[in-house]
Amino acid sequence: MSIAEKQNQLLEELALFQDWTERYEYVIGLGKKLPPMEESVKNPEHLIKGCQSQVWLDASLVDGAVRYSADSDSLITKGMIALFVRVLDGEKPDAILTADMGFIDRTGLKEHLAPTRANALNLMATQMKQRALAFAGPPAH
């Protein structure tokens, strides 16, 4: 399944909920399903700077695909990073770097977030792409 297909699937799931509180409960549920992150990785090096809550993000390259692990000390923030992990985990670095992250605007979540949390979504998307960039091959000439 491509990144765009995963994004559309996620948007379809969120569209099933009529009000934003149900959407938030769903997003929080996604966060609760994230695999536990190693405590040793929860350090300043893996912290996403600029987020109101503490959000840790780690990435590794396994068989040519980027594998993400993430956690947060806030349930809603953990759910928000889980959205990105679900869409980008297991993808090739180049696919992540070219992915349109605007799908997050179409979730309708930003309208109901405090500005600092809405900004955190942009920071998360940027950090996930930066982690993928570290694994991308040299640019083609």
> Residue share in helices?
40-55%
- Helix/strand/pairing class, anyone? mainly alpha
In the CATH scheme, the class would be Alpha Beta
- Main sheet summary: 2 strands, antiparallel
- By oligomeric state, this entry counts as single chain
Spatial order of the strands forming the largest sheet: 1-2
Count of folded domains = 1
Summarize the structure.
46% of the residues lie in helices and 11% in strands.
General description of the model:
With 141 residues, this protein is mainly alpha-helical. It has a single domain, classed as Sufe protein. Chain: A (Alpha-Beta Complex). It is built from five helices and two strands. The chain has a two-stranded antiparallel sheet with strand order 1-2. Helix 1 packs across helix 3 (75-88), helix 2 crosses helix 3 (75-88) and helix 3 packs parallel to helix 5.
